[in-house]
Specification:
This protein is of the alpha+beta class. Helix content is 34%, strand content 11%. It contains 22 helices and 20 strands. α5 crosses α6. The longest helix has 23 residues. The termini are far apart.
Length: 767
């Protein structure tokens, strides 16, 4: 049963309205006295107490810039993506249509230029109207601006639950807003207040501020809003959902026409303008904001990598949550190293490598400048958002787990690099002053657990190749003709496993470790403690574990490209960088990245490695990958192919003097243990895949198109003592055409067994 109302105080009755009017008038009188009359001039305890209460309220309002879109730019200034928590782009008042200024003032606060923050005339009018049963607001634009600033600050602090809407505010809260409005009027000009209001006010969940609203509803700018458009948007402010022109066009038109009527009554427009505007139908031309790296115009995974670098940077906040809020709300401009032209070619290559890809094989390519570490391209053959017929993947193939989206325990963290690790053993050979044309015994296939390795590191040597030991097997090459004497150079050119081990047996393994560390090579999967907390974000790749001489530890393509860039840069390693400048919405400079280079290997060693890896393309394992790139036919390029034991990870990593690139093709799923054999890729059947087959063309086509723009000078020649006496190059075993299996029968399971039984990766692969 409904509760019966007291007929005396029921505002639906005439007597009730009178009592309501008197009550509200009394309250209003107290407020007006407190706001307008000096305390000393007021008699009576009630008024005096009200004034004391009012005087005790805070008069300072911290007007921080509202949340704005952060923009990520390529090196040439073109836009990659926008990210935000609230879609807002601040514009100055002179970049707004005069119609929107006049329309908002007409409907929200016609006495805006006459009052000092609160409108007593409007308050009394609202009291009378409310007493008559027609609820009417009396907040000025300044008061609304104060309310928006307070709420924006609460949201920025994560206190969304404390946001108060007009209908739920107490008298104390309204008084506080009034005092703040008065104080604000003393501090800022009317134009500044109007500009702030129009930039902060909410129009739609996809539009905060007038610029975003103009873009959303009409695909235009605040400056170019027409009279009907401006009047409509001014009306939306009152109730963004009810007057939404997309979902409620009839409501929007009624409100728009009310705004136009107010503008006419206040002489802001002429009768003819009014008539034409009212006759204009409500039509929208919607442009939904496409925010985030998933909607990047180019390089979505590079975009996400840039964000992860900032999210992981303590200079932007004490916690990741603080950093994300600052970056997503801060209206920053982030300028990156990305070359859009290089990125476009890189994307074409990785997409073209796989075509229709129901089995979800992965392709990736990343390129850096050797003399600065700047990343110019980062591409992979997947999409961030699910799309029909596309391979969707959130993880970035090219970077470490901690630099990828999510930073979780299930990240990819790179792939087994296979024989692309062999140049580092070769580099230590040269580092010890040995000639690359020294003959070594490639017939040795057994390295027992007690083999006398030379190792000055405290880490013990781990692993063996010895079929006489239970669970182990002899080291294998891809071709029987490689078990013989050959030069160290020839062994690297043709990626001979036994040659790499014969070389390693004559150098300090600790020296190989030093070169690997100095050139930035590390595992892409961080070391974690029992609780899952990261204990080492960049774990070493231990070169005293024999499997790593031929590439068993997962390493990211960016890591490999940067390491090879050291040899292109005459022995100086430069850490990869993606961000050259960051500014906030005021233009102030924030922490970015800068080139961080160091001496890593001796210049003569770098030159010797470059000499040898040019020969890889001229007559070795890379001779089938577009030989037009070799020194014989075009500009000088040095490169190394690589394939892991089960053919699930295939590579070409190489460089010119101006650009270093890693191209990869393989299995990016789960534990990466699918065999790269008997598969069809892009309509072509492969009994097995090797580095030169798919990754190779990616590399050569990209470098052919992009490398000339970054410098392709000849590599400096190595000193004669490292060349030694050149011996006649013996004929290499015939290289099978793409699609034929040139793998051995090696044991191991994907190259991860580094214990006493085997060295795993590469046991049957020389590529």
């Amino acid at each position: 049963m409904a509760t019966r109302k007291n007929p005396i105080f029921d505002t639906a009755t005439t007597l009730g309205k009178i009592f309501g009017f008197l009550g509200v008038s009394a309250i209003c009188g107290v407020l007006v006295a407190g706001l307008l009359v000096p305390a000393a001039a007021v008699s009576g305890s009630t008024a005096s107490g009200s004034i004391q209460f009012f005087d005790a309220l805070p008069a300072e309002l911290q007007v921080d810039p509202p949340s704005q879109n952060t923009t990520i730019l390529a090196a040439d200034g073109s836009k990659i993506a926008s990210i935000y928590m609230e879609n807002r782009t601040k514009v100055p008042l002179d970049q707004m249509s005069p119609f929107i200024k006049d329309a908002v003032i007409a409907i929200e606060d016609s006495r805006f230029y006459d009052h000092g923050g609160i409108d007593t005339t409007g308050i009394m009018r609202a009291v009378v109207s409310t007493a008559r049963g027609n609820k009417q607001g009396a907040s000025t634009i300044t008061q609304q601006y104060v309310n928006n600033v307070i709420n924006e600050s609460l949201v920025a602090e994560g206190k969304d639950a404390d946001v108060q809407l007009n209908g739920s505010k107490s008298v104390g809260t309204k008084l506080r807003e009034m005092k703040l409005a008065i104080a604000l009027e003393k501090k800022f000009s009317k134009e500044q207040i109007l500009e702030g209001y129009l930039n902060i006010v909410f129009f739609n969940t996809d539009a905060y501020g007038i610029e975003a609203a103009a873009k959303l509803f009409f695909s235009t700018t605040a400056k170019d809003l027409t009279l009907p458009q401006a009047a409509l948007l001014a009306g939306v402010v009152n109730s963004p959902s009810f007057y939404d022109p997309i979902t409620n066009p009839d409501n929007a038109k009624a409100r728009r026409d009310l705004v136009l009527g107010a503008m006419l009554a206040q002489d802001k427009i002429k009768q003819a303008d009014y008539d034409a505007a009212v006759a204009t139908p409500v039509t929208t031309q919607v442009t939904r904001p496409r925010q985030g790296c998933a909607y990047a115009t180019t390089a979505p995974y590079f975009c996400d990598y840039v964000l992860q670098l900032l999210f992981n940077n303590p200079a932007y906040g004490a916690t990741r949550d603080e950093r994300e809020k600052r970056i997503m709300r801060g209206g920053m401009t982030i300028t990156t190293t990305l070359d859009p032209n290089a990125q476009n070619v890189a994307q074409q290559q990785v997409d073209g490598s796989t075509g229709a890809n129901p089995d979800k094989w992965g392709a990736a390519l990343v390129s850096v400048q050797p003399n600065s570490g700047e990343i110019v391209a980062m591409a992979q053959n997947t999409v961030l958002l699910p799309q029909e017929g596309k391979f969707d993947q959130t993880q970035n193939f090219n970077v470490d787990v901690l630099d990828a989206k999510g930073n979780d325990l299930n990240g990819i963290g790179g792939f087994q690099p296979g024989s692309t690790m062999k140049p580092f053993t070769f580099a230590q050979w040269l580092n010890e002053g040995k000639s690359m044309n020294t003959t070594i015994n490639g017939a040795v296939r057994r390295y027992s657990p007690n083999f006398p390795w030379r190792n000055t590191c405290p880490t013990p040597v781990n692993g063996s190749y010895d079929s006489s030991v239970s669970g182990s097997f002899d080291l294998q090459n891809s071709e029987p003709g490689f078990y013989r004497g050959m030069s160290v150079l020839y062994g690297l050119m043709n990626s001979v496993n036994t040659a790499t081990f014969a070389s390693a047996a004559q150098v300090d393994l600790c020296g190989i470790q030093g070169i690997v560390d100095a050139t930035g090579i590390h595992g892409g999967l961080p070391t974690r403690d029992s609780t899952g907390k990261v204990s080492d974000p960049n774990p070493k790749v231990p070169m005293t574990t024999l499997a790593n001489l031929i590439g068993s530890t997962q390493t990211a393509p960016l890591t490999m490209a940067s390491a090879f860039a050291t040899f292109a840069n005459d022995g100086k390693y430069c850490e990869p960088i993606a961000i050259t400048a960051v500014t906030d919405q005021s233009g102030a400079t924030l922490p970015a990245q800068s080139s961080n280079c160091r001496d890593a290997v001796k210049p003569e060693v770098a030159r010797g490695v470059a000499y040898a890896m040019q020969e890889v393309l001229n007559g070795g394992s890379g001779s089938l990958i577009r030989p037009a790139l070799s020194t014989k036919n075009n500009f000088p390029v040095a490169a190394k192919t690589g394939t892991n034991d089960n053919n699930s990870s295939t590579w070409v990593v190489g460089y010119t003097t101006g650009l270093a690139t890693a191209a990869w093709f393989g299995d990016p799923l789960g534990d990466q243990q699918r065999f790269g054999r008997n598969l069809t890729v892009n309509g072509k059947f492969y009994p097995s895949i090797d580095g030169y087959m798919i990754a190779g063309p990616q590399f050569t086509r990209f470098m052919s198109a992009i490398a000339p723009g970054y410098g392709t000078k000849p590599f400096p020649a190595p000193p004669s003592n490292l060349l030694g006496t050149q011996v006649q190059r013996p004929a290499a075993p015939a290289v099978p055409a793409p699609g034929n299996n040139n793998g051995g029968t090696g044991g191991g399971t994907g190259g991860n067994n580094s214990g006493s039984g085997s060295s795993g990766s590469g046991s049957g692969k020389d590529d």
